[in-house]
């Protein structure tokens, strides 16, 4: 599993052009955090979180959270 917190030892952010915030969000979602928990942890609104999630999906070329998590976990297990 991805080591975190908020680290990017495999360069996933660079590979997919994710921002540091997007890497943080992706990591927390992959760990099973709910959207509200992610927003609270990062001190951002739910709407801001949803905007980041849409951006992550676009950059990873996925359409939902399950696809995102599966893609990232595959990458993180390098």
Outline of this structure?
By secondary structure, the protein is mainly α.
Keywords summarizing the entry:
single chain, 78 residues, globular
Write up what this structure looks like.
- By secondary structure, this protein is mainly alpha-helical.
- It is built from 5 helices and no strands.
- The protein has helices at residues 12-16, 20-30, 35-42, 46-60, 65-76.
- Helix 2 crosses helix 4 and helix 3 crosses helix 4 (46-60).
- The longest helix has 15 residues, at 46-60.
Large-scale geometry: globular
Low-confidence region ranges:
none
Radius of gyration: 11 Å
User: What fraction of the residues are assigned to beta strands by DSSP?
Assistant: under 5%
Taking all residues together, what is the mean pLDDT?
85
Distance between the termini: 10 Å
**Biggest sheet record:** none
Question: Number of helical segments?
Answer: 5
The number of distinct β-strands equals: 0
Instruction: Output the helix-strand order.
Output: HHHHH
Q: Specify the helix fraction band.
A: 55-70%
Which structural class best describes the helix and strand composition? mainly alpha
Task: Reconstruct the topology from this structure.
Layout: H1 12-16, H2 20-30, H3 35-42, H4 46-60, H5 65-76
Helix pairs in contact: 2-4, 3-4
